[in-house]
Amino acid sequence: KVKIKINETEVKVPREYTVLDAAKEAGVMIPTLCHLDLHDLKFVNRTASCRVCMVEVEGQPNLAPACATPIRDGMVIKTDTLKAITARRMAVEFLLSNHPTDCLICPKNLHCELQELAQRLSVREIKYTGTAMTTHLDTSSQSLVRNQNKCILCRRCETACNEIQTCGILSALNRGFETIVGPAFNLPMVHTSCTYCGQCVAVCPTAALTEVNHVPKVWEALNDPEKFVVVQTAPAIRVAIGELFNMPAGSIVTGKLVAALRKLGFDRVFDTDFGADLTVMEEAKELIHRIEHGGRLPMLTSCCPAWVSFIEHQFPDLVDVPSTCKSPHIMFGTIANTFLAKKLNIEPSKVTVVSIMPCIAKKAEAARTELSIDDVNNVDIVITTRELAAMIKEAGIDFDKLQDEDFDHPLGETSGASVIFGTTGGVIEATMRTAYEWLTGEELKKVEFKQLRGLEGIREAAIPINGEEIRIGIAHGLGNARQLLEEIRSGKSKYHAIEIMACPGGCIGGGGQPFHHGNEDVIKKRQEALYKEDKNKKVRQSHKNKEILELYENYLGQPYGKLAHELLHTRYRP
Length: 574
Ligand code: HC1
Ligand code: SF4
Fold this sequence. Notes:
Elements: E1 2-6, E2 9-13, H1 19-25, E3 36-38, E4 43-45, E5 54-57, E6 64-65, E7 76-78, H2 82-97, H3 113-120, E8 137-138, E9 144-147, H4 156-164, E10 171-173, E11 180-182, H5 199-203, E12 209-211, H6 215-222, E13 228-233, H7 254-264, E14 268-271, H8 272-292, E15 299-300, H9 305-314, H10 328-344, E16 351-357, H11 361-365, E17 381-384, H12 385-394, H13 416-419, H14 426-440, E18 458-465, E19 468-476, H15 478-489, E20 497-501, H16 521-535, H17 546-556, H18 562-568
Parallel strand pairs: 1-7, 13-14, 13-16, 15-20, 16-17, 19-20
Antiparallel strand pairs: 1-2, 3-4, 5-6, 5-7, 8-9, 9-12, 10-11, 18-19
Helix pairs in contact: 8-10, 8-14
The structure holds 2 iron/2 sulfur/5 carbonyl/2 water inorganic cluster (HC1) and iron/sulfur cluster.
2 iron/2 sulfur/5 carbonyl/2 water inorganic cluster (HC1) binds next to α8 and α10.
């Protein structure tokens, strides 16, 4: 450790710290903008491009950026001098000189880090007006919108896209005033191999990258008397949406969420968790089938559409490794359009399925032709956690005061296994809770596979079954996934099954979730909340969910059987 002084306070901090790290430890707040450090998820953006965190260092004539200045023994730092504060304000004033001022109608209004900083630094005029960037909006994709005019060149999206996800879509183009961050040749996003994981959206401080807004489509459906509008909500929504109503991270608001959806006017309110239970039934059977019949191993989970797009674009030779299971919300949409429509005697063409997802890739996924049945897609509209919160606010619903309500039945009962789909490691834990009992014929005494949990980027575990070991791998973040895929490609993979989720943390960290603004505790709290919700459930294994069993008995037949294959399985694009 080394001794330094910050604003007259002496602190001892590890030698490898930057001035910013040291200040944090000393309880001194230095504002930042481009900087982002998610330590446990190994995401650090150190471009030092915004010059907002400038501080004075004794003996140095120029101010130094705290985020990129290593400390040294005996350093004396001042963060609150007039010179430092003025320089910070000026950095923001420069940024604003080339930034639209339409905050009132901006999709990031009240969630924008630039706006917040301008307020905090008391910027009261746009000082340096002159030529400003004007580029077109890229609305080519079904998932994300790029508005280059709002980009402040912090390069966080580039770090997410290249270092964490290893997708290499976004990077700086041109030089000087012409500099922009975008795909090669500034191609429309739809013509790139972007997976739409949305991690660029999750870390963008402004509205340069946002989700496509599908809220108007939902209002339209809800107000169409011809439509029977069914909604389903993903596992990761219930532990995150409360944050957008001023509740602490990790608040579990399942009952209020259901009540809000009913108040919005949906005809039926369902849970994607039911689709997740269905996925476990199919995926566990598929895994057993592959193990017992010499099928392709390892089998990879397939519920994350960004991950599916990644393997299709970057490992087309491996498209036979993912499970053929459709993702849970698509499975549910399919059941809504078939079994439910029949049961309620409604024309399937009148059924509109809306999925509330933590994810922007699910928007593009819903339109994949491989997922349609008789050329009809079974999920019509996907909106994110943030978009749903906006609807609830628009409708004037006081979320906090809502009384808990339950999902509609049948198709509304869910197991604890399905809830944990929303976190990294949860899909495969849920699958193993069922596969174990089916393979051994014995009851699983402890349903929690703690060895599969955590936030390490790549994890592994061996589960003893019938005197042998089922070896499980887990990766979250596409860069980590790439490592496991390279092993499979070179024939060195030792696993039977691998779970991959594109987003760091899994869906709890999805691109459609409330912004974490660099606070990774938020993601940990959401994860803890999912495990708590699982623990509180009476039934914790998918194959013990009565309504799932009834659906097979009355409609689907055998898991992994003929009708299940037709409705619930898919193929991939080589
Ligand atoms: Fe997910 Fe899934 S867990 S993919 O992250 O398998 O989006 O929450 O709904 O479909 O169940 C997302 C979450 C979600 C699906 C499920
Ligand atoms: Fe979407 Fe979840 Fe995959 Fe992220 S991990 S891209 S939120 S499905």
